[in-house]
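Mods, move this if it's the wrong board.
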Amino acid sequence: MVPTVDEADRGKIRSAPHDSRMPQARTAAAALSVASNSLLVILKLIVGLLTGSVSIISEAIHSGLDLLAAIIAYISIRVAARPADETHRYGHGKVENVSGTVEAILIFIAALWIIFEAVHKLFYGGAVEALGLGLLVMAVSAGANFLISAHLFRVAKATDSIALEADALHLRTDVYTSLGVLAGLGLIQITGQHLLDPLVAIVVALMIIKAAYGMTKEAFLPLLDSSLSAEEETLVRSVLGRYENRFLEFHALRTRRAGAERHIDLHLVVPGNTHVDEVHDVCDRIEAEMRGLFPQASVLIHVEPESKRKG
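Not the wrong board. Structure tokens:
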């Protein structure tokens, strides 16, 4: 018996219905991220230079990479929304995965640069000035990034966008690192130990590397045509289970993801005397239910008569 799933379980995966507003929602969210990151980069860089804090400057660099990532995400979302054409028969969905992978690489580079600068300051020293200004800008940064990242996560979930999810993760990482720098600057103000500044910067960099690793797995694996998650494949099988009285068996189930798109194909074995209209009807119903689970699913069903069944 193929397992079934109730509406609550399907709700874990189901995205909002695919309509003409989805590309606009993604684009608007990505544009908001670009604007927010631009302001934060300028603010952090100015304050970092005024205070001489390598941890604030490291945050400015991180936000600069976030800005570049946000621009890449904005472009990739616009490209991914294009319909299939003569040269891209399966659409442009994987552009979002390419974008996420590039973003992760940029984060790795930023983290390594931060570690280099922090180690340099550990050896050669340097005081942090105007701590109050540094504390203020990091508090503003953490608050702004928390609000923007929460919005991006909501839109990413509603529109099933890996590029927006990666961008949201960038900003949420910024929240944690900004809070870390904020704590470090606070400790410097309390203790007077300026050595804490580069040490906090190194911790920030390690947090960034951890986030980038997770993002790389999420974005890059679909480029290798890896299967859908076990949870998603269970949902696919549950749809087939609801129609098991209309066919004999299914096999050769294959799945993969490209951005927000899911590609599902399988072989369906039916009795040899089944009328073509009946076979067509059950295939249409199966495809419709799968698109109910995954609005941008591409479903291909190859029908085989019982006489062709192996074994």
